[in-house]
Every structure is written in structure tokens, then in C-alpha cells.
Design a protein that fits this description.
Blueprint (H helix, E strand, L loop, with lengths): L11 E16 L1 H5 L7 E2 L6 E15 L11 E12 L2 E11 L2 H9 L4 E11 L2 E8 L5 E13 L6 H6 L3 E6 L2 E8 L5 E11 L6 H4 L5 E13 L2 E2 L2
Parallel strand pairs: 5-6, 5-9
Antiparallel strand pairs: 1-3, 1-12, 2-4, 3-4, 4-5, 6-7, 7-8, 8-11, 9-10, 10-12, 10-13
């Protein structure tokens, strides 16, 4: 899959993501709509909005076409996002992005992305992966234990799984301006996962909504992606 409108954009980051877990909840559009910035509208499935938490490790990162920077250790990341449209084009809007690397959080915020520094740990034992995230100077916490199940498959384009996963435009909002970041990577090949959510206080205003139903779960072992530097929408 190739993101649109990227030919004129020179600067991009090449990353390798590993042990990705997607946890998706159905949310009332009326509740979520008031948290969107001007210029974006909710993208709905079956009349309902969706919000997702995505946990993963970034094992490699570098500027595209340049050699890998030595001594850069892997970083962890937890994203909270929802599904939006602008002028009929589908994408995601990031509420928050937590990472354990201060340099990454500081640099990304300069490019308008809503990064926050957090104490994070990811470990694997007996086939289970545990991700623990506690945002600095905040009560925002995410603690989950998960284990992949089944055989990886490409979701059918007519399913909600495909609708949730295949998104190649990421939106953010800062200083009264909307910013667009394009993404390019191959289509998602995912499998099911057994999960145990031990703690979740991310985006607390929606916690009661999340507890009303079972989430949709996706796991992917790895993905290489190109992320273009976000640009302000005029």
C-alpha cells in the first residue's frame, strides 16, 4: 500500500515495528465527536465510532535513504487513536502517543505529534508478552498481557478488520492547526490474540464506554513502515 500525496515530500522516517497489539473498542459517536479538532469528521462503521490502543516495539529507526544511526536502542510505544475522514479520505487521528524515549518524545512534539514520555517495559515469557506503560506526571497507565493465537491472515476488504487496520494517513492537531502525516507499508497480515488488560487509564473520559463490550483484537509480528514528516494543512 502506498500513501497518497507523498511524491513531493522528501523527509521520511523508516521504522521496523514488532509485536504489535491492536485493541479496538466501539464508542458512541456523540461522546467522541467533541474530542476531535476542527476539520476532521468521524469515520463510522455501522453507525458507530471506534477507538484503538496500539502497543508495540520500534526495533529500528532511521531517516529514509540514510544509514542507520548507531547506538540507538529500541523504543516502546503505545498509541491511542480514532478513525476519521477529511474530504472523503480515510485516516486516523492520534489523541496520545506514549514512548519511553525522551529524545523521541521531544523531537516528535516539535513535529506536532502528541508524544509523551512514559516509564515503559516490554517483556516476553512463556509465549506471553507483557507491556507496562505509566506516563510521567500523569495517571495515564496501560498494562496488558497478550499471546498470539491462530494463523496470520490478510483481512477481507469487506470486513471491519480491514476497515480498522488499513489506514495510511495520520492526523494531529497543535497550535490551532491540523497536520497530516502520510504512511506507507504493506497490507496488514494479522492473527488473533489472547489478552488480559490489567490496567487502562488512557483517555479516561471514555473508560466507561470501553468497559461495555469486548474489544476486537489483532496481533502482528512485525511491519516495516515509512512515515513522512507531518505537514500543516493549509
Amino acid at each position: 500500500m502506498i500513501a497518497k500525496n507523498t511524491k513531493q515530500r522528501k523527509w521520511a522516517m523508516l521504522q521496523r515495528w514488532e509485536d504489535l497489539l491492536f485493541v479496538h473498542w466501539e464508542v458512541s459517536p456523540e461522546l467522541l465527536k467533541k474530542h476531535l479538532p476542527p476539520g476532521l469528521e468521524l469515520d463510522l462503521w455501522g453507525g458507530n465510532a471506534w477507538i484503538s490502543i496500539v502497543s508495540f516495539k520500534v526495533s529500528k529507526t532511521r531517516l529514509r535513504y540514510l544509514p542507520r544511526i548507531p547506538y540507538i536502542t529500541p523504543m516502546l510505544q503505545v498509541n491511542v487513536r480514532t478513525y476519521v475522514m477529511k474530504n472523503g479520505e480515510k485516516g486516523v487521528y492520534f489523541f496520545t502517543i506514549d514512548t519511553n524515549k525522551l529524545s523521541a518524545a521531544t523531537g516528535a512534539r516539535l513535529f506536532t505529534l502528541p508524544y509523551f514520555k512514559a516509564k515503559m517495559k516490554m517483556k516476553s515469557r512463556f509465549g506471553f508478552i507483557t507491556m507496562i506503560s505509566s506516563r510521567n506526571k500523569s495517571n495515564a497507565k496501560w498494562k496488558i498481557r497478550y499471546k498470539k493465537q491462530g494463523t496470520p491472515t490478510y483481512p477481507n476488504p469487506s470486513t471491519i478488520d480491514h476497515w480498522l487496520l488499513e489506514r495510511y494517513v495520520a492526523w494531529s492537531y497543535k497550535y490551532g492547526n491540523l497536520y497530516r502525516g502520510d504512511i506507507r507499508h504493506s497490507c496488514w497480515k494479522v492473527q488473533q490474540a489472547e489478552i488480559e488488560i490489567k490496567e487502562n487509564s488512557l483517555l479516561a473520559c471514555l473508560l466507561m464506554e470501553w468497559k461495555k463490550q469486548q474489544p476486537i483484537i489483532h496481533f502482528s509480528k512485525s511491519k516495516v513502515a515509512v512515515n513522512w514528516i507531518p505537514k500543516k494543512v493549509e
